[in-house]
Each structure stands twice: as structure tokens, then as C-alpha cells.
Write a structure and sequence with these properties.
The protein is built from 1 helix and 6 strands. It is mostly beta strands. The protein has a single domain (about 25-155), classed as Jelly Rolls. Strands 1, 2, 3, 4, 5 and 6 form a 6-stranded antiparallel β-sheet that branches. The longest helix is centred in the N-terminal third of the chain and has 19 residues, at about 1-20. The radius of gyration is 18 Å and the shape is globular. The termini are far apart. It holds the Pfam family F5_F8_type_C_2.
């Protein structure tokens, strides 16, 4: 009986592990990034797999960063890595948007998540539940805002 329980627990663990590892690699590195303006480092610094090089827009209204994945994708999650030095709170209130439209630079696409806050050098995963789109945007609504992103990772489901 004890052997059967252990086997069941082991198989259950394997099944859960297989389900959570069904996401493909980070596809953001295969895309093309642009942003509303550049104060320091260009938009592609957020998809270079080096989390200490960070994009940074100028102070402006509704600063945004956009990833073009070149084709329709089914997005399961987006991971945002915040800066490690000053100003890490600037990301607060940013929105992750996913869709096919470039209307308003892609900032009118459907919202996957709102970033309430990310600590310095922390990475936070946002579930997008299979949202479809070609573009992933990060935008901070409002006046006199800066957008800085150290890394943006985009994962699609392994079965798509």
C-alpha cells in the first residue's frame, strides 16, 4: 500500500512538472523591439538576455515599448525584469498589452496585466492565459512618465 501511494505521488509530481514545463523558450529574442523615444539604450536592450542593460525612454506622455513577434502567437506569460538602481518604482502602473493592431502604436490592444510594482532587479511573471497577438506592448499611461525595462520575456504554449 505504501509503495502504491509513493508511486502515485511520484507520478503526480512528474505530471505537474511536465505541465508547467510545456512552455517553449523565450520567443522575445527572435522579435524586433521599438519604443516611443530613447533616453538611454535602445528598445532591443530589453530582449538581449542581459538583465543589467535596460531600455529607458525620455520623460513623456504615455511612454511605450513594443515587441513585434513577426507573426500571430498565443501568449501564455510575459516576464518583466525591473532595473536594479534608482527609479525602479517608475514601472508602477505600466500595462502589458497584446494584440494585432498598431492603432495608437499598439497601446489600444487588449490588456494582459497591469504592473502594480516590481522591486529593484526583480522579475515578475504575468499570466496572459493564451492571448493572441503579434505585438506585445508595455505602456505607462499618464503625463511626465519614463519607461525603463531591463528584460522582457515572452512565452508561448508548447502545443501551439
Amino acid at each position: 500500500m505504501l509503495i502504491l501511494i509513493n508511486l502515485f505521488l511520484l507520478l503526480g509530481t512528474v505530471a505537474i512538472h511536465a505541465m508547467t514545463n510545456n512552455l517553449k523558450e523565450n520567443i522575445a529574442t527572435k522579435g524586433k523591439a521599438v519604443q516611443s523615444s530613447t533616453y538611454y539604450l535602445k528598445a532591443d536592450a530589453a530582449i538581449d538576455d542581459i538583465d543589467f542593460y535596460c531600455t529607458h525612454t525620455k520623460t513623456e506622455t504615455n511612454p511605450w515599448w513594443r515587441l513585434d513577434m513577426m507573426d500571430l502567437q498565443i501568449i501564455e506569460k510575459v516576464i518583466i525584469t525591473n532595473r536594479m538602481d534608482c527609479c525602479f518604482e517608475q514601472i508602477n502602473g505600466a500595462e502589458i498589452r497584446i494584440g494585432m493592431s498598431l492603432e495608437n502604436n499598439g497601446n489600444n490592444n487588449s490588456k494582459c496585466a497591469e504592473i502594480s510594482g516590481i522591486s529593484a532587479r526583480q522579475s515578475v511573471s504575468y499570466s496572459c492565459g493564451g492571448m493572441q497577438g503579434r505585438y506585445v506592448n508595455v505602456v505607462i499611461p499618464g503625463d511626465s512618465k519614463n519607461l525603463s525595462l531591463c528584460e522582457v520575456e515572452v512565452f508561448i504554449n508548447g502545443t501551439s
